[in-house]
Specification:
alpha+beta, 7-stranded mixed beta sheet, 8-stranded antiparallel beta sheet, 404 residues
Amino acid sequence: MNNIYDIGIIGIGVAGAFACYKIAKEYKDLKVVGFDIGRPPAKRRRQIEGYLGCLPNSDGKLYLNDINKVSELIGSKKTKLAHESFDKIINQIGNFKIVKDKPLSATTDKKLKKFGYDSYQNDYVQMYPKDIHLLSKYLSEDIRQSGNMKFNFDEEVQSVYKQKDIFTIVTSENNEFKCKKLIIAAGRSGWRWSKELYSNFGIIDNNDIARFGIRVECNTNIMKDFSKSNCTILKGNELEIGPLSWFGTVIPEDHIDLAISAFRSNENRWKSEKVSFSVIGNRLFPKKGFEQTDRIGKLTFVLSNDRIIKEKISLLTSGKSKISIIPEYDWLKETINDLSNIIPDISKAYFHVPTISPLPPKINIGNNLESEIDGMFIVGESAGISGILSAATMGLHVVNEITK
């Protein structure tokens, strides 16, 4: 049994790194092995792969509302404890205060409701690159000193299978590792990998929804009614707009074979007088939601000559946009016309694609974060829950569950 690890962690992004940190601090008797296709700490890295995942290249905003779905899954008490643990960690490197989101005016709120929209404010903690660098050093040093973890960075996990009570992980270097339990934390860059894993284990519960749309970018005067609010706007379960992101730049978030439009404002080089926000629709494609999301992302990436498209919204509504040849985008014409009721000059704005939500299909996960496969625990975006704060809190909490 000496060659069998107690826990294998696939993905050392945000969720995986915080899980490793908690094990290093509280469970030094456990034998742990971790895997990531990207680079280790303190090494030159690709954009969203490797240690701490997309955090170093994100806007550094940790939206408090992101953990609501974590709370729905594991319960409010457990979520609160994990969040408190996270706060203690980041306050070792700085004095982080919650930035209170500016509420909408009564007039704007009334207008939203008149046209069938709801909204919620997004309080957040703002991290800057220097903070993220310090956090990276802080976590990795304690993980290294624990001495009970082996890591395989720059190495892809090719397959995972289970025989009796033992998981076997096979890497791209043809190395095999046997583990009693697994934490799947493949994250944002591993959405396709997670889907293949769930398919192979036969645990996909629902694959009916594709989440895609556009990222709008405009001058701040067009959004004057929203007056620097970071709110998110919803229309039923079909449409999500936001968070509204101010004074930054739309940038490409690089995946293996496509770039997704994203937002940065936490460095001077990204500062602008623009505001941007995603307009994401939940579109029904029975049993093919993931495949349609992937297909639409790739199609729009090809149309943009392998980057991201920027066009006027007026081209989209007039049917003259590059993406007008893709019938799956037809719903956007009606959506933009409807949005003009609450954003009258939206036709003067620009939009960016590809804009998709890169998540694997839905699987059943218990309130202990365990999947239908005994001993396989799922966290972060691999669990279908977006957000950096969500990933961190799930990574911390899953260690409590897996060590019971």
